[in-house]
């Protein structure tokens, strides 16, 4: 063995991480100097730092806005990276960070709720206290859902991503109904480092110093957690106390940063990953290098936003997502697998000997839901069951929405089955893996290129975006043995890019913003008879191809070698499944928006009910998905009549708690 092969993992190689951190900090310092020189000559910089009195507007702006902004960028970047290192070490999960664990979204939701309904509490606790309570509630919910004896990394992250998306959906619907009151909160949530003094910088510096001191005392016991709970206990570590203390510190630090600057994506995930990739293997090395890298990344991005003419209106948090998302997708195939590959088949132990009776019962339930959606509703006189002439008068308003919701739910459920079986991941879905976000990104790009695109071009753009997202998933999966953490990272990347673009549109004041937000929420308000028929025609054409996929879906989870031995052309089959999944997801997303969770919940429910064979699983999932979406559209227009909740958001409200219960019960 060579001598360098036996060197400690955190020694010589960690110098590369230090070098990267210094390069980023020097680049940030250089751009900061360029930005500062626009307001003050270099000879005046020492006077700025010394606080000399002046009446020059440019000098005052540099001293009380630009310099505090640079300081806050460095402190926030370092704090997010430090929290990411702690989360990842304590949970033994390289994907853990404030965004993926729901901490940032929970803090934002708490501030939105407090602003709307509890202004007195908001004045008493201030933003930081409210953000901490929301972040604490989110992380406790994630732990309650995802915790198990084995502490599955993938399960914890799925719970975190789901809580984050769910909290974001709730915030989205509140913003949709209260745009005049919450536009400022939405802009703040997109991550802005704009400062009007040194108060935030001093506050963050004190909290970061306190967190660093506490984490330093926990470094040794946290490092011992990496060898396993039993071994750590044998060495005298009080595992539950150490884990809870570290999680509380990281959550409090994240909440402080969120309350000060809003939601900053990617930094807490990227900085520790870069540090590890550069050789910082030990916890001590990561705790030193990752905060420096995070500080350099965030400050460098913020200075770029200020200097680039086309990016000045983009919030810094959105810029980190727009830059970090594509970078993460580029790095994924080059990263080592960090979790067990998802090679297990999606079938469970329980099987239905005769699925036909259950499918018949599902058809009856679906028919009942459709009948209620068409005939039962709220009127100014209350709930009423329509018939005869009354029903005939309301049908032109109701049946297009019911038909579109029915087809969209069925297509999302079918796409979820295809994804889960193609990637051998029972928790895969268009929403979690980013395919719906890819479709939404395609539509947003089209809206920038064409002022009033036709339905054909909208369908083409969403299909292209969904196909690109699924192609990235298959490309990353093929290189990593379909490791679950990498597939989830693809979804995180596409999801953060979608959120960033939405934040950019909100910040720009684009007149298409309200329409886009309404569509992202899954509104079927404007569904016409022609649009519903086009959706149904495309959906029926795509669903008619599903019987051809039954045999490949039953064989692909067994591995490529077995599939080839049984006569399956793996590359050709996966390409066909990619295109079919993209078409299903794009058509459904165009109708009900990118966030419904039907593609995650319906296949999971039917599999747990015993539908394991591909054909039966597909049929049952389509019925379940269609029923959920029709019920969501029906209840969304009825529960708060005469106001309406978008079908996509209401579907996420229905599916969310059910999925969390199923995930908690799953062994």
TrEMBL record:
Record membrane topology: Multi-pass membrane protein
Highest taxon of source: Bacteria
Swiss-Prot/TrEMBL keywords: Cell membrane, Membrane, Transmembrane, Transmembrane helix, Transport
GO terms assigned for molecular function: transmembrane transporter activity
Matches recorded under Pfam families: FecCD
Single Gene Ontology BP annotation: siderophore-iron import into cell
InterPro entries, per the entry: ABC_BtuC-like (IPR037294), ABC_transptr_permease_BtuC (IPR000522)
Transmembrane regions listed in the UniProt entry: 66-87, 99-118, 130-150, 157-181, 244-271, 283-301, 313-332, 352-376, 402-420, 432-449, 456-476, 488-509, 530-550, 577-602, 641-663
Keyword Repeat: no
Keyword match Transmembrane helix: yes
GO cellular component: plasma membrane
Subcellular location: Cell membrane
PANTHER family: FE(3+) DICITRATE TRANSPORT SYSTEM PERMEASE PROTEIN FECD-RELATED (PTHR30472:SF37), FERRIC ENTEROBACTIN TRANSPORT SYSTEM PERMEASE PROTEIN (PTHR30472)
Family in the record: Belongs to the binding-protein-dependent transport system permease family. FecCD subfamily.
Name of protein: Iron-hydroxamate transporter permease subunit
Organism listed in the record: Nitratireductor pacificus pht-3B
Upper classification of the organism: Bacteria, Pseudomonadati, Pseudomonadota, Alphaproteobacteria, Hyphomicrobiales
């Amino acid at each position: 063995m060579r001598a360098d092969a036996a060197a400690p993992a955190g020694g010589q190689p960690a110098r590369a991480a230090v070098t990267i951190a210094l390069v980023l900090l020097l680049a940030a310092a250089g751009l900061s100097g360029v930005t500062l020189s626009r307001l003050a000559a270099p000879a005046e910089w020492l006077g700025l730092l010394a606080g000399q009195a002046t009446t020059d507007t440019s000098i005052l702006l540099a001293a009380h806005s630009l310099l505090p902004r640079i300081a806050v960028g460095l402190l926030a970047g370092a704090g997010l990276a430090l929290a990411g290192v702690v989360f990842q070490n304590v949970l033994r999960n390289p994907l853990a960070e404030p965004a993926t664990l729901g901490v940032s979204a929970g803090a934002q939701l708490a501030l939105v709720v407090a602003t709307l309904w509890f202004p007195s509490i908001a004045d008493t606790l201030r933003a930081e206290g409210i953000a901490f309570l929301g972040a604490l509630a989110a992380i406790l919910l994630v732990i309650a859902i995802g915790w198990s004896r084995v502490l599955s990394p993938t399960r914890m992250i799925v719970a975190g991503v789901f809580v984050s998306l769910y909290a974001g959906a709730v915030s989205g619907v509140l913003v949709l109904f209260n745009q005049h009151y919450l536009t400022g909160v939405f802009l703040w949530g997109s991550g802005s480092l704009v400062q009007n003094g040194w108060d935030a910088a001093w506050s963050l510096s004190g909290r970061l110093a306190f967190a660093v001191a506490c984490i330093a005392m926990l470094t040794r016991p946290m490092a011992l957690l990496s060898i396993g709970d039993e071994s750590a206990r044998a060495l005298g570590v009080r595992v539950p106390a150490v884990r809870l203390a570290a999680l509380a510190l990281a959550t409090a630090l994240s909440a402080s940063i969120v309350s000060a600057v809003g939601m900053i994506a990617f930094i807490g995930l990227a900085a520790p990953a870069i540090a590890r990739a550069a050789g910082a293997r030990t916890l001590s090395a990561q705790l030193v290098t990752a905060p420096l890298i995070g500080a350099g990344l965030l400050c460098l991005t913020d200075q770029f936003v200020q200097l680039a003419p086309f990016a000045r209106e983009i919030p810094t948090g959105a810029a980190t997502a727009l830059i970090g998302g594509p970078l993460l997708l580029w790095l994924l195939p080059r990263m080592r697998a960090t979790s067990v590959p998802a090679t297990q088949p999606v079938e469970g132990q329980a099987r239905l000997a005769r699925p036909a009776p259950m499918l018949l019962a599902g058809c009856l339930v679906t028919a009942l839901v459709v009948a209620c959606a068409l005939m039962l509703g709220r009127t100014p006189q209350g709930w009423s069951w329509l018939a005869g002439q009354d029903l005939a008068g309301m049908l032109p308003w109701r049946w297009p929405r019911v038909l579109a919701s029915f087809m969209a739910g069925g297509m999302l459920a079918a796409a979820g089955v295809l994804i889960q079986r193609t990637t051998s991941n029972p928790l895969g879905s268009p929403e979690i893996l980013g395919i719906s976000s890819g479709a939404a990104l395609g539509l947003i790009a089209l809206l920038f290129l064409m002022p009033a695109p036709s339905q054909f071009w909208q369908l083409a753009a969403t299909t292209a975006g969904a196909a690109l997202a699924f192609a990235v998933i298959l490309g990353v999966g093929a290189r990593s043995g379909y490791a679950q953490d990498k597939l989830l990272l693809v979804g995180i990347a596409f999801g953060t890019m979608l959120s960033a673009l939405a934040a950019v549109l909100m910040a720009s004041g684009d007149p298409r913003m309200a329409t886009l937000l309404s569509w992202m929420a899954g509104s079927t308000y404007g569904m016409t008879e022609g649009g519903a028929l086009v959706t149904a025609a495309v959906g029926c054409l795509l669903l008619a191809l599903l019987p051809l996929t039954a045999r490949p879906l039953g064989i692909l989870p067994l591995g490529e070698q077995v599939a080839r031995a049984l006569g399956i052309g793996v590359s050709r089959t996966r390409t066909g499944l990619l295109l079919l999944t993209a078409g299903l997801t794009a058509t459904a997303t165009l109708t009900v928006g990118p966030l419904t969770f039907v593609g995650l919940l319906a296949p999971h429910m039917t599999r747990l009910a015993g539908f394991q064979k591909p054909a039966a699983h597909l049929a049952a999932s389509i019925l379940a998905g269609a029923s959920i979406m029709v019920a969501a559209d029906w209840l969304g227009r009825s529960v708060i009549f005469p106001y309406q909740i978008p079908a996509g958001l209401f579907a996420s409200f229905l599916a969310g708690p059910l999925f969390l219960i199923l995930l908690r019960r799953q062994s």
